[in-house]
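seq as requested:
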Amino acid sequence: MTAGSRRLRRWAAALLVPAAALAWLGTTGAGHQVAATAPAMTGQALEGRLGEAALRRTLAELDARLERLPGDPEARLLRAMVLFKLGRLPEARAELDELVAAAPGFGLAHVVRGDLLLAGVEAVSDVGAGIRVLGLGDPGDAERRLEALRAEARARLQAYLARNATERVPLQLLQLDPATGPALLVDKLHNRLYVFESTGPDAPPRLVRDVYVSIGKLIGDKQKRGDLRTPEGVYRVTTWIPDEKLPDRYGLGAFPVNYPNLLDRRRGKTGYGIWLHGTEKRYYSRPPRDSEGCVVLANSDLAALRRWVTPGRTPVIIASSLDWVPVEQWRAARAEVLAALEAWRRDWESLDVERYLSHYDADFWSGTGDLAAWAARKRRIARQKTFQKVALSELSLFAYPRPVDGRRVVVAWFRQDYTSNNYRSRTRKRLYLARGGDGPWRILYEGR
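struct tokens:
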């Protein structure tokens, strides 16, 4: 082992600390608290990912990622970290030299590069030592900025190692129909946005891209205007706003989402202006918790994201953390919801209006009122029917990331074709279904 490699051992321990010890408190440059979070992996699992053989596999994975995404700054940064961990310091430094030249606003890349350069002359005990020794600026402010960059380094590396350690499916994405197009999933705990696309209505969706994001300054689900939290739920991109119509703080542009959605408003949530947007053009990225509630991407990642987003259609699921489950568990959960929808459709066709109404929750609401108003209308209409045919197609199912008032919730988007003796319609429909404990799925909302 070279002297430089020995000097880097303490630096590696600071950055690649076992996940069981990755709960920490700190502040960002804005002075807000960064609360302790649960680890992405167990310490044992992460240590397994940091063995030499595992690191070589990770390096191969990063090389493959760079073949797909030439010049990807995050992949190059992670590659440099893995190279130095393997003792290949000249290659790590060369990678970082090229990276900071290509992405001069990438603050974390500059910090890591400074640490590797300092390691050539003295021991490096923590991330950012190479910057601190310069003695520039107010010490307190510099330390706050460095703590934010350390948090970003850990978030990026932990998320990447955790993702590559498993081949599972997010339970929140129960079904993604090709007609819906790609879906965006945001994991707040791991500061990650994932892009999934359909591989067919009966198959698990496929991950096609994932990127680092910054989220709201405070932990938790958004409840009210100005609480500095990122909401959690199932949303839809509404439009695209280009940079020429926005202040510089939004970077390349913004994709607003429909927060507060129907369920949010029903539960009394307030606020507005939750966007997926870019970063100030003089910076490459922001610290993990540095927005007022929006999801913030590097401008290059936002530019790449545009190919997968269709305003008015693309779903956005924001979760405190995603539930990655084996495909068999995903299929079982999906089958339960599909069975409930099929029973509702079949009982609607049967003209047995009471059996049909049994699928609706006591707390049901729609644009025409509550369950009592809905039931009265359906009983009146049923008296005029001699037959009904109901067909559902282009069905996508999105599970809410956490229980809502103690119950699991799934949102169904689909096209409905209805034919009866005196009426015919084709419409897009949305259902919210809720389930408490082991009880049946019930319809909580029905509308467009």
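The chain has three domains: 3-164, 169-324, 326-447.
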